[in-house]
Structures are given as structure tokens and as C-alpha cells.
Design a protein that fits this description.
Largest sheet: 2 strands, antiparallel
Distance between the termini: 21 Å
Number of strands: 2
Strand content: under 5%
Helix content: 55-70%
Order of helices and strands: HHEEH
Strand order of the largest sheet: 1-2
Length: 91
Amino acid sequence: MNKKIASKLTDAEKFKIVRREAIYTGIALAALIFFWLIAGFGTASLDVKIFHLPLWALLGSIGVWFFAIGISFILSRKLFKDMDLEGGKDE
């Protein structure tokens, strides 16, 4: 977000942005839990091993970690806005 635009935001506009970011974070958490369930429990019946470890163990632990990093990257680069939360104009 442009600094000139960010400094001209009212408190109500900042609250709206913060609320939207909180909703995106909640959706990301739900996606992470869903991935964990599918990756861990969904692949438990498969007899696939990587480095002598079952696929469900790798996807349910390390796979979830990488998925969380990817979600965090997308949230921070594409959806979250950097703004000053102090000193806004109330209009």
C-alpha cells in the first residue's frame, strides 16, 4: 500500500482492513487443518514409503509445515497491507 494512501486512512477504514486480514487468517487456518486431515489421515491407508517412512507421517508433519509456510507467504505478500495503526483521522 502506498504510504501516502496509508497515512490518509481513517480508523474505520483501518478496522475494515484488519477485519478482512483476520478473516483471511481464519480461512488459512481452516485450509491448514483440512490439509493436515487429508495428508495425515487420508493417506494412512496407502502403503507408500519415502526414506523408510510412511507417506502419512511425512505429509502429516513435514508436509503440513511446508503448506503453512506457503500459506503464510501468500498472506503476507498478496493479502496483508502494511499500515500505521496509530494516529488515524476519525471522520
